[in-house]
Amino acid sequence: MNYDNLTLHTDKYQINMMYAHWLQGSHKEKAVFEVYFRKLPFGNGYAVFAGLERIVHYIRNLRFGDEEIAYLRTQEENYREAFLDELRQFKFNGNLHAVPEGTLVFPNVPLVRVEASVFEAQLVETALLNFMNYQTLVATKASRVKQVAPHDVLLEFGTRRAQEADAAIWGARASYVAGFHATSNLRAGMLFGIPTKGTHAHAWVQAHDTEEEAFRKYAEALPDQVTLLVDTYDTLKSGVPNAIKTARFLQSQGKRMNAIRLDSGDLAYLSQQARKMLDEAGFPDVLIVASNDLDENIIEGLKTQDARIDIWGVGTQLITAADQPALGGVYKLVAREKNGEYVPVIKISGNPEKVSNPGFKEVYRILNKKTGKAEADYLALQHEADIKNGERIKLFDPIHPYIHKYIDDYEAVPLLQAVFAQGALVYELPTLEQIRDYHAEQKQIFWPQYLRKLNPEVYRVNLSTEAWKLKMDLIHQHQG
Ligand SMILES: Nc1ncnc2c1ncn2[C@@H]1O[C@H](COP(=O)(O)OP(=O)(O)OP(=O)(O)O)[C@@H](O)[C@H]1O
Ligand SMILES: O=P(O)(O)OC[C@H]1O[C@H](OP(=O)(O)OP(=O)(O)O)[C@H](O)[C@@H]1O
Ligand SMILES: O=C(O)c1cccnc1
Hints:
By secondary structure, this protein is α/β, with parallel strands linked by helices. Helix content is about 40%, strand content about 20%. It has a seven-stranded antiparallel sheet with strand order 13-12-1-5-3-19-20, covered by helices on one side. It has a six-stranded parallel sheet with strand order 7-6-11-10-9-8. Strands 18-14-15-21 form a four-stranded mixed sheet.
């Protein structure tokens, strides 16, 4: 069994549609799809785009091998052999544009645009959404943790509670993009170059006759990175005093104890008391790590309670995005080829927010030249020149168009970058460090009111007048 081939990591209906297109001879016609989400997760003001690196590897390796073809034959007797032969030849030959990983992104903004034969474009929907929805969700959750502890060390501890192995490693990577400093998962470290960190478990203490002995042996084994878990029996009566003894022992060896870890109880109270005990014993530089089902709200609460915690280990709540376990990113057809030309298409809904934005579009981030800050994201049809030439543009609310303003003095930064051109990779994948740095820079171009974690100001995502008119025309056409 070849577990690595992700070509059939798609919904059956995609292959069914590919088959039906092939039968009617429309499978080579071009289609343009956009990936976007409609609602921000966690009540946050922005999301952190992630998933592109995985998408790139996936697209490059798309192939229907013998196993895939043989399996498809067993799943649908209608598939003709000639169709399966066509699949054998399959390779992604389309164009794919995407915003760079680490970009701050907003509802209804196209994050990935696929322009390819309908055959190719249909196949990749499921996997693209799978990768981007999860990784963007976890990066956004991690970013919220980062917001409440911007100057502390953040460790990703989630693997044991993650929704299986892929989620653990890509979630670790997404957390690192958003500003975490290290992961406990060594495979994520090996694959992506994320720094790794680890303390020890209760099992280490339980495996010895006394806590003191356990600490001493651990310090002897790993004298350069000693972080002792102090809550196995009694944090303040036993754990911290034994840790202090170990710190003295290390000192006598010319070494320094790194930290203690608290993993239960009232973390505010215990950290304050432990801090006091460590300081009084002459160890003001021994740090305090906390873990135990932490999330951004508990960490924020602990900070307002003056908890003396330097390092946060965050697992379950982060890796599972526990308070919102899915991002609702969608993949919508916006244009299709007809008689050699693109015609825009729309998806109508009773809910105005769910009506899709038709047409082959570009995305611009409008920066105010005076302040350098982002004013809005602006979706324009591809041919529109005024925005490209920096001419005066009108920004208006697409649902309430009478709310509007004009702007002249702006820089329009195109967000979608070419990743594949006619099937060839034309994008130099940035290193993870570059992505993480770029993400940190991204936060600087937004006013803090868009970034706050509770009731943030809504960032504008606007359609150009032409894109808006096109949408209205298509709505009227379909209603008429
Ligand atoms: N001062 C505090 N303010 C707010 N939340 C806290 C504070 N101290 C701890 N917490 C959080 O409260 C929750 C309480 O955890 P839990 O019910 O597991 O108790 P515990 O003492 O950790 O028990 P256990 O030994 O089972 O781990 C955890 O999510 C923890 O992070
Ligand atoms: O709480 P999380 O945010 O998910 O962080 C990871 C948790 O995993 C470990 O606990 P576990 O009970 O699995 O083992 P241990 O306490 O015996 O180490 C660790 O002690 C953390 O509490
Ligand atoms: O290193 C740790 O302390 C750790 C790692 C994974 C999960 N919980 C704790």
